[in-house]
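## tool: complex_structure
## caller: assistant
## args:
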Amino acid sequence: MSFIVNLLLGLLFGVGLVISGMADPAKVLNFLDLAGTWDPSLAFVMGGAVIVAFFGYRVVLGRKRPLLAPDFQLPKRSAIDGRLVAGAAIFGLGWGLGGFCPGPALTSLGFAETGTLIFVPAMFAGMLAAKWLARA
Amino acid sequence: MTEFTPVASLIGGALIGLSAVLLMALEGRIAGISGIAARLLPPYHKGGVLSRLGFVLGLVLAPLLDALVSGAPVVQTVSSNLPLMLIAGLLVGFGSVYGSGCTSGHGVCGLARLSPRSLVATLVFMAVAIATVFVVRHLA
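## result:
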């Protein structure tokens, strides 16, 4: 049941990425290129997503519990520390180099571009390294 | 150059937001793709791998659904500089897990929850990504 629900929500999320243009690294890199061929589209992607999530969360989190799980699992960390800033900076560097963040990279797998097929396994390797480092 | 697409981007963004809201309403979880993907990897804790696999499978199959519905091919330009894509992938994977989130977890869900941590993370990765593109395209 949970598998099917997640599959459908992943489909919805991925279709959103495709329709919005966020799955195209060229569009992402142009959004980040303020001094060159700037394409402001991605501000509308984030704007649309944040506005819907902001109002949706207000309704949903006012309820006692989710429909299919015993409780809401919200992030417990609140400290703004070196790890948060360093991780975000490293992520930003990779995002600026390749134009892919995790969602669009996974959504692009089916197009089987060589760059994507190199990027995704490398991304999983990086995640594995961070998980083991955080555990140590 | 890529075409400025405010309407399609706003609609696509709203669908991403809707997916995030429904994941919270049904399963009580944040729609952070780096977190979902990282839970497919060891070390495992508290299970839930199958549901994460479902979400990732949905992401992978999404262009197929989009093509069936819209009938239009998806336009995409991925860099063919393979060493660059390898390094970019390593950095994106490492940084998003080490910093507890990416564009979706911090940039969408975190901002929507008005989390100060996510605001800081989003400002940092945006600034670094903009600076990176500036160096690569205009200085290098």
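## assistant note: Chain A has a mean pLDDT of 97. Helices of chain A lie at 2-20, 25-32, 41-60, 82-98, 102-107, 114-135. Handing back to user.
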